[in-house]
Amino acid sequence: MSEPAEHGLTGLPPTFTYTEARRLGVSDRRLYALRDAGLLELIGRGLYQRADLPAEADPDLLEIAVRAPLGTLCLTTALARHQLTDVIPASIDIAIPRSHRRPRLRAPVTWHAFALATFNIGRDELALSETTSIGIYNPQRCIIDAFRLRHTEGTEIAHEALRRWLRRHNTQPAQLLTVARSFPKAEPALRAAMEILL
């Protein structure tokens, strides 16, 4: 009984979509049998994770990474990962380029449409596993976005993130202002806050 089950998992990556499974020759019947036997875990709509391997990462982030390849952790979610806020958002803040479609997900996501011209500024990759990663904005970009969107996100989050970032020993205020030049709506408020804090 275990031999066919193991054979059914051969060639399947740790995390995969229904479409990828079909492309690898796994029939619907076999896929659902593996799921029902507890050898696969459904972690999102049409998204599976092998149960015979160590859990890769947060299933919500895996689902976002697979369904929205350009999706990028931003604002409060990214600030929390960079330890620049103690606020834990109720949903995951994800930026996508304007005009890109927002996929339906099981994960609790708040979508943010960012301009394509500046979308990649400060965008890094956060490894979720050996095979999967998700975009995340670096601390400087997160602070700038918090100031840029302070009318919706709140000014206190922006000021607290800036205070924490400036307290770090290796921070370069000039570097932050250089990046801020690409975001004219954020730069004046950011400069004013820095003058008070420095």
The tally of helices reads 10
Mean pLDDT: 87
- List SSEs in N-to-C order: HEHHEEHEHEEEEHHHHH
- Please estimate the helix content: 40-55%
Gross morphology is: elongated
Number of strands: 8
Indicate the radius of gyration in whole angstroms. 20 Å
Low-confidence blocks of residues: 1-7
For the sheet with most strands, the description reads:
5 strands, mixed
Strand content: 15-25%
What does this structure look like?
The chain is an alpha/beta fold and 198 residues long. It contains 10 helices and 8 strands. The protein has helices at residues 2-9, 18-23, 28-36, 59-67, 75-81, 139-148, 150-153, 155-167, 173-180, 187-197; strands spanning 15-17, 40-44, 47-50, 72-73, 92-97, 109-114, 123-127, 133-137. A hairpin with a 2-residue loop joins strand 2 (40-44) and strand 3. The longest helix has 13 residues, at 155-167.
SSE layout and pairing:
Blueprint (H helix, E strand, L loop, with lengths): L1 H8 L5 E3 H6 L4 H9 L3 E5 L2 E4 L8 H9 L4 E2 L1 H7 L10 E6 L11 E6 L8 E5 L5 E5 L1 H10 L1 H4 L1 H13 L5 H8 L6 H11 L1
Parallel strand pairs: 4-8, 5-6
Antiparallel strand pairs: 1-3, 2-3, 4-5, 7-8
Helix pairs in contact: 5-6, 6-8
Summary tags:
198 residues, single chain, 43% helix, 8 strands, disordered N terminus, 3-stranded antiparallel beta sheet, 5-stranded mixed beta sheet, elongated
In short:
This protein is of the alpha/beta class and 198 residues long. It has helices at 2-9, 18-23, 28-36, 59-67, 75-81, 139-148, 150-153, 155-167, 173-180, 187-197, and strands at 15-17, 40-44, 47-50, 72-73, 92-97, 109-114, 123-127, 133-137.
